Structure formats: structure tokens, C-alpha cells
Amino acid sequence: MINKYSSISDAQLVKDALAQRREAYEELARRWSSRVLAVCQARTGRRDIAEELTQEALVRGFEKLESLSDPAKFGSWIKSIANRASIDWLRKRKISTRSFSEISATQDIDLPQPTESVIETLEQREEMERVLTAIHELPEKCREVLLLFYYGEHSYNELAELLNTSTATVNARLTKARTLLRQKLLNQESKS
User: Fold this and answer.
1) For labeling, which of 26, 39, 78, 85 is most exposed (least CB within 10 Å)?
2) Distance between CA atoms of residues 75 and 17, nearest Å
3) Is the pTM above the cut of 0.90?
4) Nearest-5° Cα angle at 152, 150 to 156
5) Are 182 and 128 spatial neighbours (Cβ–Cβ below 8 Å)?
6) Residue 78: Cβ-neighbour burial (10 angstroms; 0-12, 13-18, 19+)
7) 112-121 LR contacts (CB < 8 Å, sep 24+)
8) What value does the mean pLDDT of the chain take?
9) Which residue has the higher pLDDT, 154 or 185?
10) Three-state SS string across the chain, please?
11) What would the mean pLDDT of 111-131 be, rounded to a whole number?
12) Residue 111 confidence (pLDDT)
């Protein structure tokens, strides 16, 4: 079945969604969920949390859709909601985390003995955090295309459609993003 909304602009989809057309909501969610996921993934560094935050951001956005003053800017607006949802999650996480110095000396703590698989997992997590930190430092267009390509698993054609650009531009942005990322990672290594 062909979706009649797939070729309609975001602005029209927003207007249709405000008129309670469920298909318009679904198309907006389909169209923007991978980019929202990329924003959340870049902020949190965790795919599982990013997926939850993507849902939360889309729900928040749809609940407040009438507050969007320019329907044509739905994309940047929903990504900013995703960014705020991610920041909120990071703040809550920071507040709920207790440092070792806060734990009483009389409390018993059973820490697992590190095994090879635990150490391997920690090393992989550290490497992933290092890469995500470097990705987060990239210019927005490079960061967006890189995350959409690798995490969203979109093809060049899909990216061109999502980003409203040509496949040549997608290729150029990915090439630039990879080059910048490689330089950042090499710079990090040389500093350590």
C-alpha cells in the first residue's frame, strides 16, 4: 500500500496532524525517528536509552505540536526536543549516581571481581565513548549524516531524501565526516 503522505512536505504534515489525521502523525514519526535517534545516541552514547528517548521526544513533540510556530521547521524543532530530552536524562543520571566517597565506610559493598569478559566489555565501552565524544565534536551536518548512515543504517539514497539533498552531497558529507573523525581520534591517541 502506498502512503499518500510520503511525498507531502513536513509543513503540510504538521497541518494535517493538527487536524487529527493519524496518518500525518505516523509519517512525521517515520520520517524523523531515525534522525531523532541519532541526536539522542550522540548525546547519551547508549543505543538502548536513545531508543527510549526517541519515543519520548516524539510524544513530547506531538503533544506540543500546536506550539510550533513554523510548521516547515518541524525537523529542527523535533531534534531540539530530542536534544532536551537527552540532556534531561543525563542530568537525572548524574543526580542519581553516587560517588564512592559518599558511601559510608561501614557499608558492605560486593564488587564483582573483574573477569576477562568484563574487562573486554569495559575496554569496548571506553572505546565507544571515545568515538562518540569525537563524533559529538563534529560539525552538525557531518555528525548527522554519519550517525544516520551508521546507526540509522540508511542508504545514500535514503539519506539524500531524508536530508533533502543529493546523493553526491551525502557522499561528500560522509567523506568529510570520516576524515574529521579520523583526525580527531588520531589527535586523541597522540595526546595519551
Assistant:
1) 26
2) 15
3) no
4) 70
5) no
6) buried
7) none
8) 80
9) 185
10) CCCCCCCCCHHHHHHHHHCCCHHHHHHHHHHHHHHHHHHHHHHHCCHHHHHHHHHHHHHHHHHCHHHCCCHHHHHHHHHHHHHHHHHHHHHHHHHHCCCHHHCCCCCCCCCCCCCHHHHHHHHHHHHHHHHHHHHHCCCHHHHHHHHHHHCCCCCHHHHHHHCCCCHHHHHHHHHHHHHHHHHHHHHHHHHC
11) 65
12) 43
Answer whether residue 171 shows pLDDT above 70. yes
Pick the residue with more confidence: 146 or 21?
A: 21
Please check whether residue 162 is in contact with residue 148, taking contact to mean a CB–CB distance below 8 angstroms: yes
Grid cell, residue 53, equals 528517548
560522509: which residue's cell?
Answer: 174
What residue type is 61 in one-letter code?
Answer: G
> What type of residue sits at position 59?
V
Q: In angstroms, rounded to a whole number, what is the distance separating the alpha carbons of residues 105 and 109? A: 10
- Mean of the pLDDT values across residues 50-54? 92
Nearest CA to 133 among 48, 45, 47? Answer: 45
The C-alpha cell 519520548 sits at 56
> Whole-angstrom Cα distance, residue 57 to residue 60?
5
